[in-house]
Design brief:
The chain has about 230 residues and is an alpha/beta fold. The chain folds into two domains: about 150 residues, SPOUT methyltransferase, trefoil knot domain (Alpha/beta knot), CATH 3.40.1280.10; about 70 residues, Trp Operon Repressor, Chain A. It has eight helices and nine strands. The strands form three sheets. A five-stranded parallel β-sheet has the order 2-1-6-5-7. A two-stranded antiparallel sheet has the order 3-4. The longest helix has 19 residues. The relative contact order is 0.15.
C-alpha cells in the first residue's frame, strides 16, 4: 500500500512513521509512506496556504490551489483521497478493514477553520472524523486512521489472525489478560488460566468478554447502533 499525507506540518509525523509497527511495516515492504509539505505547492514568496473567508467570519480557510496541486502530483486511478475533518463520517473498525484493502490512500490534513469547499467538491472521495472534539490540525487524526489501517494489512502484525481477535473485530470487548508473575502484591492470576485446559480457558475468556462488554459497552450486546459496535 502507498500512503501519502498532505500537511503543512510534516515534521509531526516523523516520530510516528519512524518507530514501532509503522517502521517495521515499511521496512518489510507492506507499506510506503510519503509526507508532502503543502507549502511546497504554493507559488508566492510567503508560501501561503490559507486566506480569509469570503463573506467574513473568524479564522482562516485553506486555499484550493496548493491542495489541488499536491493531490494531483500523486493521485492515480487507484487513489482514494481522504479529508480529515470534523464534518466527516465517524471512523469505525469496519472502515479501517475496508481501507486496508486499498492500494493507495491520500490523506489531506485540514488546518485552521477548514478548507475551501471546492476541494471537497472536486478532490475528496471520503471525509473522516475520529471524534466529536476539536484538535489543532488534521495530522493527529490522520495518524490514528493510518495506525488502524496499516496494522490490518496482511503480514504487518505477524501472528496469523492477530488483528481479528482484538476488541471491536467482534461485538465483544477483549477479555482480561495476564502474564508472569502468577502472583503480584497479593493479586493472583485466575486459576482457569493456569490449568492447561484449553476448553476451560476459552470458556472463561468468553464469559469475561461478555461480562466486560455488559459493564462498559452494553450497546454492543443490545445491538443498538450497528455502526457503533465497530468502535471509534
Amino acid at each position: 500500500m502507498q500512503i501519502d499525507i498532505i500537511t503543512i506540518f510534516p515534521e509531526m509525523l516523523d516520530g510516528f512513521l519512524g518507530q514501532s509497527m509503522m517502521k517495521r511495516a515499511a521496512q518489510a515492504g507492506h507499506v510506503t509512506f510519503n509526507c508532502l509539505n503543502l507549502r511546497d505547492f504554493t507559488d508566492d514568496k510567503h508560501r501561503t496556504t490559507d486566506e480569509r473567508p469570503f463573506g467574513g467570519g473568524p479564522g482562516m480557510i485553506m486555499k484550493p490551489e496548493p491542495i489541488f496541486r499536491a493531490v494531483e502530483s500523486v493521485r492515480t486511478k487507484k487513489s482514494h483521497v481522504i479529508l480529515m475533518c470534523p464534518q466527516g463520517k465517524p471512523f469505525r473498525q469496519r472502515r479501517a478493514q475496508e481501507l486496508s484493502n486499498k492500494k493507495h490512500l491520500i490523506f489531506v490534513c485540514g488546518h485552521y477553520e477548514g478548507v475551501d469547499e471546492r476541494i471537497r467538491d472536486a478532490l475528496i472521495d471520503e471525509e473522516i472524523s475520529i471524534g466529536d472534539y476539536v484538535l489543532t490540525n488534521g495530522v493527529l487524526p490522520a495518524a490514528v486512521v493510518i495506525d488502524a489501517v496499516v496494522r490490518l494489512i496482511p503480514g504487518v502484525l505477524g501472528g496469523e489472525g492477530a488483528a481479528e481477535q482484538e476488541s471491536f473485530s467482534e461485538p465483544l470487548l477483549e477479555y482480561p489478560q495476564y502474564t508472569r508473575p502468577p502472583e503480584f502484591r497479593g493479586m493472583e492470576v485466575p486459576e482457569e488460566l493456569l490449568c492447561g485446559n484449553h476448553a476451560a480457558i476459552a470458556e472463561w475468556r468468553r464469559r469475561q468478554s461478555e461480562k466486560r462488554t455488559a459493564l462498559r459497552r452494553p450497546d454492543l450486546l443490545s445491538g443498538e447502533g450497528a455502526e457503533n459496535k465497530d468502535g471509534a
